[in-house]
Design brief:
The N and C termini lie far apart (51 Å). With 148 residues, this protein is of the alpha+beta class. It has a domain at 24-81 and 113-129. It is globular, with a radius of gyration of 19 Å. It is built from five helices and four strands; from the N terminus they run ααβββααβα. The chain has a four-stranded antiparallel β-sheet. Strand 2 (63-68) and strand 3 (72-80) form a beta hairpin.
Amino acid sequence: MCAEFRSNPSRGVELHKFGEDLATEHKQFIVNYCDNVPVFVSMFPSTLKPFYMKSDESDMAFCFDLLAAYGGEICGGSLREDNEENLKKKYSFEKHTNLSWYLDLRKYGTVPHGGFGIGFERLLQSILGISNIRDIIPFPRRKYDCKC
C-alpha cells in the first residue's frame, strides 16, 4: 500500500517523513483506502514509542495500532522489553530513580510478554458510526462547563 501511495501522491493527503508519527489524516486515509474496514498498522520506529516497548535491530518497535472508521485508533499494543540491559540503553534510569523498581522487575526475572489497550469510547464510536467522540463519552468536558 505504501509503495502505491508514494507512486501516486495526488490523493489529498500530504506525505510525512519516515520517523514521524502518523497524523489523524494519515490514519483516516489508510482506513478509507482499505474500504473502511479495521486495519492493523505495525512496526513503528521505536523513537515514536515508549521506552518499554521491545524493538528489533533496525530500531523498529514490535507494536501495532488498530485503526477503524470514525474511531481512528481504537486499540494499541506491543511486546514489552524483557531485557534489563536493553532497557538501560533506551532510558536514563539514573536520572529517574523513582522508576528503578521497573528495572528490578527485569533484573530479578521476567518472561517475554506483551500488552494492549482498547479505547472503549473509540470502539463504540466506530461500531455506531458516530463522527464526534463527545457524543459517545458519558461525561464529556466542554469549555465553560465547570463552574468552580
